[in-house]
Amino acid sequence: xxxxxxxxxxxxxxxxxxxxxxxxxxxxxxxxxxxxxxxxxxxxxxxxxxxxxxxxxxxxxxxxxxxxxxxxxxxxxxxxxxxxxxxxxxxxxxxxxxxxxxxxxxxxxxxxxxxxxxxxxxxxxxxxxxxxxxxxxxxxxxxxxxxxxxxxxxxxxxxxxxxxxxxxxxxxxxxxxxxxxxxxxxxxxxxxxxxxxxxxxxxxxxxxxxxxxxxxxxxxxxxxxxxxxxxxxxxxxx
Length: 238
Hints:
The protein has helices at 2-8, 25-29, 35-46, 67-106, 112-115, 121-125, 170-237; strands at residues 134-141, 144-150, 155-161, 164-169. By secondary structure, it is mainly alpha-helical. The chain has a two-stranded antiparallel sheet. Strand 1 and strand 2 (144-150) form a beta hairpin. The longest helix is centred in the last third of the chain and has 68 residues, at 170-237.
């Protein structure tokens, strides 16, 4: 099984093992074929311990666990993670847009591209309107909004998860949100890449299972035919 040892080292950048393709079932099983034992050894070759990702822990169970189920378990976890990221990224973008608007307003910069409003003569004579309160709406849930007056401020409060909220100065909040957005987008790209890789491995495992099964069926049929012919020869000789 030296070929398996080589195949075992082939993994994607996140450590997900590549499923070896059994091109020649007879060669894979050897001169004394035992499909059941060979598949167990194949499963053991793919079992490993990896600390790089929580979803890899299923591979530590080793012999006796179906590899396709391992891949499908990981596929399910990554699919859930992809769904969470696709919901999270729009929220980060929305929050970042609002904080950037507050920062621009604080700095007295024109944000006509965002607001779509022109300054009137009074505003031009009195300077910028960064010191005035802003009437806006904020989301309470998916379908409920409330009106609020936003005073000029240099501080915002951001939810960090786990019922934790911290205050940040506007520049620090913008930097944090941009970092979170970039990280989430990179994570989503990685998850999509891993999902595509996993589905390829699931297909390979299904093909391997079918090839070994069909090979065993053919071998048993040939053995029965051979035994039947030998029985007829012995009967004639007798």
